[in-house]
Amino acid sequence: MNEPVSVREVMNREYVGVSESDDLLETTELLVREDEAVALVLRGNDPVGVLTREDILAHLVSEGGTESAVVGDAMTESVPSISPDARLPEARDRMAAWSAQWVLITEDGEPVGTVTEHDILSTARLESESTTNPDADTDVEGTQMATTQAAAADGASTAAEDSFDEQGICSACGTFARDLASFNGQLLCADCRDV
């Protein structure tokens, strides 16, 4: 059975960093331009909070505008974080505990990246990969091994190289699919591979 993937393997090392005194409107424009849902609020190199799209909307509803608002007026002061050596199930559990769609990755107290729900979904394995199929007499893992051995014996590439037996998000259309396959360096669903 495969070891769980570490956070370091899938984390995004680039993130939007802002300070508490930055203009809220300019920061909102930055988030839109960078197509990011969250900005990490830093005091020096220390994370002191986050600014999400929801924080900005809540500020607009409660205060009615952003004319003189700064990031510190709208930010959330708590930051869910985890070590880069943690496994993805731990990151998923941390997100669930904080009701967050992302988690900050810190090493020696310094921010080094983020992991999102999308990152976790795109690396999730099919649950049936290591269990038996109740509708069949054969075990899925044994069938995959036999298929892989037969392909290797024929001189063909292995099933692991041809496709990914994973569920995840299609790189082209963004839909959740169980039949992703690598095509030109992207994981694509059956519909997008046919185009």
From TrEMBL:
Fe cation binds at residues 170, 173, 189, 192. Zn(2+) binds at residues 170, 173, 189, 192. Transmembrane segments: none annotated. Keywords: CBS domain, Iron, Metal-binding, Zinc. The keyword Iron applies. GO terms for molecular function: metal ion binding. This is CBS domain-containing protein. It comes from Haloarcula limicola.
